[in-house]
Design a protein that fits this description.
alpha+beta; three-stranded antiparallel β-sheet; globular
């Protein structure tokens, strides 16, 4: 059985603001784009090779789960994370498609500042 901090909100309580706030971070957007393949992914693996510490990735997974985007499935010592695609598509039609086809996410996973956009 999962711990209380593994809990996710009921889909009826998920708001668009919370979802957009969660995916505003480029790393979390990349996580959602990876999970959009419909597969459950282990929390450890090369598909998460974003150059971040394990604790930082844990933080990002928690934010996505608390926002209602993902669920964590615990089976013994194995933790997998999956996108709540069907539920999200029903609540916010077209949102996940829009997020997963988004281009322009910086390859380093960090947002550019307004000064770097204007070339100053």
């Amino acid at each position: 059985m999962g711990r209380e901090d593994d809990a996710m909100p009921d889909i009826a309580d998920v708001t668009m603001v919370d979802v957009l706030r969660a995916v505003a971070d480029p790393i979390r957007l990349r996580i959602v784009q990876t999970l959009a393949d419909g597969m459950a992914h282990g929390k450890c693996g090369t598909h998460w090779d974003f150059g971040l510490h394990k604790s930082t990735m844990t933080h990002h997974f928690r934010i996505l789960r608390q926002a209602g985007l993902t669920r964590t499935v615990v089976a013994g010592r194995t933790h997998t994370v999956e996108l709540r695609r069907d539920e999200l598509d029903a609540r916010f039609p077209g949102l996940i498609d829009a997020l997963t086809t988004t281009t322009g996410v910086p390859s380093g996973g960090t947002a550019r500042t307004p000064a770097s956009r204007s070339g100053r």
